[in-house]
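User: Teach me something about this protein's shape.
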Amino acid sequence: MIRFHALASGTLFLFWVWVAPFAQTARPEVGARQTNSLGMELVYCPAGEFAMGSPPEEKMRQEEERVHRVRITRGFYLGRTEVTQAQWSSLMEVNRSRDKGDRLPVQNVSWKEASEFCRRLSQREGKSYRLPTEAEWEYACRAGAQGPWEPVDPLQDLAWFADNSDEAAHPAGTRKPNAWGLLDMLGNLAEWCSDWYAPYPAAPAEDPGGPAEGTARVVRGGSWRHFRPMLRPAARSSSPESYQYPHLGFRVMMAAAP
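Assistant: First, the predicted structure itself:
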């Protein structure tokens, strides 16, 4: 930066002043991982835009999956797997899972209990954890893929579902990851999202979080008991927030540094 300075005699002096640039925080790479104090791996999902829902030509789609543009304005971290029973028991008093095992995803958890786990984890870690929104969940599940969804590998390699699960949950993270390194986004256990369930808007949306009130919460991903139509990124279902099922669990979202 150039500075000018005038003396009383009227002589003008010219000199340089160096000003340090503002420091900028480097954005993590897509798929970068962090591990918290529970041993929970979290995967970075970047900001971006995608077509939420399914186009008419997608196989097994439902009419409620109307395509609309969604913009995610801030990157975030998402649990690499569903919350396991070992992680759950580190913060919560009761484990009601049907299929017991430290590495198995926690089952029979209501939406309210999953939200309370996120609150306790936030307090323990000094960071902001919550359930992902439905838009964040689908965005992360697609991992950059657009258009009609077709698995890049046989579905049996990606997910535990009705065709291969033997009607039970399996240890978290034992199928192939998606393009961003996330595991079990489809199958094993279906997953609570933060939103109240409602029809999609027709207009494009930015960081949608669903309506302010409702009667049931969004559930995504399909599970060990579901068939192929539910094992798609756009497939939607719902449940009252107090319900607990052996095929329903959750994963956490952690806010990234601004």
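Now, about its shape. The domain at 27-255 is CATH 3.90.1580.10 (paralog of FGE (formylglycine-generating enzyme)). The radius of gyration is 23 Å. If you'd like, I can walk through any region in more detail.
User: That's plenty for now, thanks!
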